[in-house]
Design brief:
Elements (H helix, E strand, L loop, with lengths): L10 E8 L3 E3 L10 H4 L2 H11 L2 E7 H16 L5 H12 L1 E5 L5 H4 L7 E4 L2 H10 L4 E5 L2 H9 L5 E7 L7 E2 L10 E8 L4 E7 L2
Parallel strand pairs: 1-6, 1-7, 3-4, 3-6, 4-5
Antiparallel strand pairs: 2-8, 7-10, 9-10
Helix pairs in contact: 2-4, 3-4
């Protein structure tokens, strides 16, 4: 029997890119080119306005391994800012979907983070998540997943933070074989680092 369905959840893709369009230098990217921006107090305030509205986080294998190796230490470090620790606690406990063709559930359970599960098919999984109860679904800086969801028409909002650095090569965030149209919803400048965040919504 058909039931009444409410509005779908919003899928937000959030990514940091260089001014020449790359989201990383490659598989072993250490993000050093973007860390000044990511850890700046102004950026922390801005990003808090995004992640506090989400009840599901999506990452790929590379970011999962990078995040779980760095964030537990940042979260426990007494010298970390309150916002850094708050974000670290949120990342540790929020529902997390990790897209990977190689990781197993047992691999996720070796980390300090909880409430994470492995998934294989980004399009099918995100379609299901959009229909499930919850708040926003936040895709965290995972280029391959963002590309797949853009091609499937499943990204509702896009935050691109452009860092004043060129990488000269690596992994581009946006797919080269997909065309789409967006509306500008807002811009934010981070004066201390020179970064600019562009917030787009689907028309």
């Amino acid at each position: 029997m058909a039931g009444t369905t409410g509005p779908q959840r919003t899928v937000i893709a959030d990514a940091v890119v260089s001014i020449d369009g790359y989201s990383s230098t490659g598989p072993d990217d250490d993000m050093s080119w973007a860390m000044e921006h990511i850890m700046s107090p102004q950026s922390e305030v801005f990003y808090e306005g995004i992640w506090r509205g989400a009840s599901t986080a999506i990452v790929g294998r590379t970011n999962w391994e990078g995040f779980t190796s760095v964030w537990p230490g940042l979260t426990k470090d007494p010298s970390s800012s309150t916002r850094t620790r708050d974000l670290g606690n949120w990342l540790a406990t929020v529902e997390k979907v990790v897209f990977s063709t190689t990781l197993q559930q047992a691999d996720l359970e070796k980390t300090e983070w909880t409430n994470a599960r492995v998934a294989r098919d980004p399009e099918a999984e995100v379609r299901s998540l959009k229909d499930a109860p919850g708040r926003d679904i936040l895709v965290l800086n995972s280029a391959s997943i963002i590309q797949a969801l853009l091609k499937a028409g499943l990204v509702d909002e896009l935050y691109l933070t452009v860092v004043p650095a060129t990488l000269g090569g690596g992994l581009r965030l946006l797919p080269t074989d997909h065309a789409s149209t967006w509306q500008l919803a807002g811009t934010t400048t981070i004066p201390t680092t020179g970064a600019v965040t562009l917030h787009y919504r689907r028309p």
